[in-house]
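Weekly modeling sync, notes
Attendees: S.R. (lead), two postdocs, one rotation student

Agenda item 3: backlog of single-chain predictions. S.R. asked that every request posted to the team notebook include the full sequence so nobody has to chase files. The rotation student volunteered to paste the first one in as an example of the format we agreed on. Action items at the bottom.

Example entry:
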Amino acid sequence: MEIRLSGAGGGPICGPICGVDEAGRGPWAGPVVAAAAILDPARLPSGIDDSKALSEAKREALFAAIRANALVGVGAASVAEISQFNILQASLLAMRRAVLALPQQPGHALIDGKHCPRDLPCPATAVVDGDAKCLSIAAASIIAKVIRDRLMQRLDGRYPGYGWGSNKGYGTAIHREGLERLGATRHHRLDFAPLRRFAHQI
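Predicted structure, as returned to the notebook:
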């Protein structure tokens, strides 16, 4: 579960490789959060996998282990930026911020998906299904998801009635019922098609 790379001309890459992934492209509410992770081969936490394949308890345990044994950067793009740029560009912006937030500049970035952010401080490679192919991307996926899930749980306490503590902002039946009953909040992505009719309320 790792990607083999070489630098320009087939030579070695100067500097460590980071994996980059995001969480929260699909939900109706909340920011998109990205993480970048540089793993230490001598201190690899056991059980790293795509965050979607792990239970919440396992993600939480791995989150702590990764933070303790790897270099991590985190970035986000707000609901306003999602509206301004669209969700893809906002996700790439969050990824760029995550790479820039690393305590050490990487020599190469492996980006989950089909697109790479612009203006990174290093070369980058897009890896489709990277969170299932690359340990560093999988580690980043865990960091991003846990941070975003915790954020949505906090917002659920401030905006009860939408079920964000459990659905994390996705368009579940409880979330839809909350919108009909309470209307939209400033944390809703009102440019998303199912929510546009609530835009006049904000």
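Discussion: group reviewed the output briefly. The longest strand covers residues 32-39.
Action items: rotation student to repeat for the remaining queue; S.R. to check formatting next week.
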